[in-house]
Design a protein that fits this description.
This protein is α+β, with helices and mostly antiparallel strands. It is built from one helix and six strands. It has a five-stranded mixed β-barrel. A hairpin with an 8-residue loop joins strand 5 (124-130) and strand 6 (139-151). It is elongated and about 100 Å long. The termini are far apart. 12% of the residues are buried. Mean pLDDT is 79; it is low at 27-39.
């Protein structure tokens, strides 16, 4: 083979290789776009309840996606609608019976059924989950809510 034919062959191989790499990348993009939304494509928020109006709660805090590869986070204020299908759980942090004011302690932790009546302004939301894209809306329907509640023994009065 002469030098001119060899150069043409090398150029054609390089062009073919670049085309295959481009095609592979493009097919990967198409596959991601065609992936159906699954149960793991939820959005999460944690923060504090700002306001409660009937079955609506307004939460100020951090949002994130559970979609694989979606590492976005943001600070937002979102209004959530609570439906009869919403699961509400309370993470009860229970202080020991011998707790003393001003002394640190490790609370016992229990996850129990929560109640809409416990959700008030200032309540700490550990996790509120929804199917709606919280990056593109300020209203959503909550599917699951986990909130924290610090509980002290009966008769506990902090020293003044």
């Amino acid at each position: 083979m002469n030098k001119k034919a060899l150069r043409i062959l090398v150029v054609l191989l390089i062009v073919l290789l670049l085309f295959v790499l481009f095609l592979k990348d493009r097919l990967k993009q198409i596959a991601v776009q065609q992936t159906p939304i699954t149960a793991t494509d939820d959005y999460l928020m944690s923060g504090d309840i700002q306001k409660v109006e009937g079955s609506l709660i307004t939460v100020k805090g951090s949002i994130r996606s559970t979609k694989p590869g979606d590492d976005r986070t943001d600070s937002r204020v979102i209004q959530f609608s609570i439906s009869p299908q919403t699961t509400i759980e309370k993470i009860a942090l229970i202080a020991p019976a011998d707790v003393k004011s001003g002394v640190g302690f490790y609370p016992e932790t229990k996850v129990v059924a929560g109640s809409m009546s416990d959700l008030k302004a200032g309540t700490r939301i550990m996790k509120i989950q929804t199917k709606e894209d919280l990056f593109n809306t300020n209203k959503a329907v909550a599917t699951d809510i986990n909130y924290a509640s610090l509980e002290f023994p009966s008769g506990f009065l902090p020293e003044q």
